[in-house]
Specification:
about 200 residues, alpha+beta, six-stranded mixed β-sheet, flat
Length: about 200
């Protein structure tokens, strides 16, 4: 079965209170953070791909061939991307005056506390949602159960909750003998697919 879980509902299940920022300011802060490396694993905890079609085309892999292949396939991409990006730069210029030290501190706390909590506890939101739909209870797995690939139980049924990308990762050495739930994050929430 397939479901969609809206962000508001995920937040209800996860007991978090994410901060709302003025339009564009979070991206600006994120870019500044990339330069400062303020949220690198060495500082706060842990976190990529590109041109497979070109690489498999049989053409010698050089930067000049890549450029030629790309421009032939997408002749207007540079101009279109530049127009879009430059418009965004103008929007960011308008957002910069809104950022003060207090906002940066709220952004850091939101990233480390709320977003990490929501990201790590997507499974909790999914299990709670499934339990609600089945009119039963749920619980998260114990450390011993987690070692067997179980993320939690809905009623008496064991579930493993994985991102949709997990299907294509080729995890040949891992066998999980429980019901699988795959999820995809969207702007508005989660799309989940529950194994029958």
């Amino acid at each position: 079965m397939k479901y969609t879980i809206k962000n508001e509902l995920i937040e209800n299940y996860n007991d978090s209170n994410p901060t709302t920022f003025p339009k564009y300011t979070s991206q600006l802060i994120n870019w500044a953070n990339q330069n400062a490396q303020g949220t690198r694993p060495v500082v706060v905890g842990q976190l990529s791909e590109l041109f497979p079609e070109f690489a498999e085309s049989g053409i010698e892999i050089t930067i000049d061939n890549w450029r030629k292949w790309y421009v032939e396939k997408y002749p207007h991409a540079f101009a279109n991307a530049t127009d879009k990006i430059y418009t965004q730069v103008q929007n960011l210029r308008d957002a910069i005056p809104l950022i003060d030290r207090d906002m940066v501190e709220r952004w850091v706390e939101d990233l480390i506390i709320d977003k990490t909590f929501n990201g790590l506890y997507v499974q909790r939101a999914i299990l709670a949602f499934l339990a609600e739909n089945k009119d039963t209870t749920y619980r998260l797995a114990t450390p011993e159960e987690e070692s067997k690939g179980i993320d939690g139980y809905v009623g008496g049924v064991a579930y493993s909750v994985k991102p949709d990308s997990y299907k294509t990762m080729g995890r040949l050495s891992e066998t999980i003998d429980v019901k699988m739930v795959y999820y995809t994050k969207t702007k508005t929430g989660l799309k989940i697919e529950v194994e029958d």
